[in-house]
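Below is how a single chain appears once it has passed through the pipeline. First comes the sequence as given, then the structure the pipeline wrote out for it. We keep one example in the README because the format questions we get most often are answered faster by looking than by reading.
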Amino acid sequence: MAESEKKTKGGDSSSRKPDEKKEEEEKKKKRYRVKQLLADVQKQVEFWFGDVNLHKDRFLGQLIEESRDGYVEISVLTTFNRMKKLTTDVKLIARALKNSSVVEVNLEGTKLRRKHRLGEHPKDVDSRTVYVELLPKNVTHSWIERVFSKCGNVVYISVPRYKSTGQPKGFAFVEFESEEQSLKAIEMLNNPPEDAPRKAGIFPKTKKKRPVPLTSAAEATQETSEKEEGDLKKDDSLLKAKRKRKKKHKERLKIGEEVIPLRVLSKKEWLVLKREYLMLQKHSMAVLKKSMNRITPKTEVAMDYDASGQNSGLSLTLYKCRLETPAGPQFESGVIVKITHTQPLPGRKYIKDALSGVSAVMYVDILEGDAEGHIRFRTPEDAKAVITAQHELQKKYSWKLDILSGDHEQRYWQKILVDRQAKLNRPRDKKRGTEKLIAKAEKIIIARAKEASKHIRFLDE
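Resulting structure:
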């Protein structure tokens, strides 16, 4: 009995050992994850409150300026997207920043501030920054940092994105610690593919948010050869640059480095190209505006003059205001018809098409799901014509139609004026001059296309 008891006890101890090992391993893993999280939080906060970021970050800079002692609430940082991905625990963030060399936390553990005062804005930022394009579609800051950190210490990365979709625009700016590092990045990483446009900043054209394929390599080489026939010096420089790129490519393959097809140039060079592009855009918009003025000439403002020759008409500004804000519907008795049904009424278009066969409908005022609404006609005669045909309409659609009169009519006309004023006061999306001009040009093109597609009918002689 004693031996059997010893065996069972020994068996229990041996089965417990693997469980204890598993628990210890899990605890180690948990400690490692917490340690890594604290390190990531510290790195992110130190970047936000570092010299490089604060010279560019208006929001944080304003918060620090508005604070008397320079402290910022840690809860503000938990609203940032980057911090949301890591943690939203204020206590954990305060714990991560205990040994920080950049920021310090208050005694309560709710606020933090910089340890040292922010210096003046550096003047050599552009010379230390490179512009990079032909980036992958779903590029991230960490990917760019991994690629460019081979050339030096990356201190800041900017990836512009579209406001509507949040997708990257295909280019970025990378700031290094020194100008030598940025020059090294241009030398090492500038490796655009053969089919890429020769000039920087030329992105693939899109049609209906889809990229338009570039011309084939054969066509491209044929076009370039025709253009460059008379420029031997340019040809020589291009060939030398091509040979240099190929040589670098081979050297990288020998070393075993990853060759990424990117175009990298200095920010100063990019600024020159930007100015060139803006000038070209300005010229193109001016040409477009002239073409539009030829197609749609401005209407001349007719002024009334009295017998003495003095201008007795409206001022030009008042005339423009009248053109921009046309008068709404004027009160006329007997043009509003009330429509009711036992079930929710169909859509506006359906009702308008059904009644337009009898009289011209000006406006249908019906909300989706309502069993009653109002219809405005051009004249009282048109409204009466619909009432006359009510018997046939009721058989077909089961609608009840009545012309409004008295107080009901007055109240409805007041509703029309209130609704119109609310619509005019509604804030509108402001468009830039270029967007406005392009939108007008597109409208003219569509109108002319519709006009051209109309059939010409000849009368029989």
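Residues 214-225, 250-256, 298-323 have pLDDT under 50 and may be disordered.

See the next section for the split statistics.
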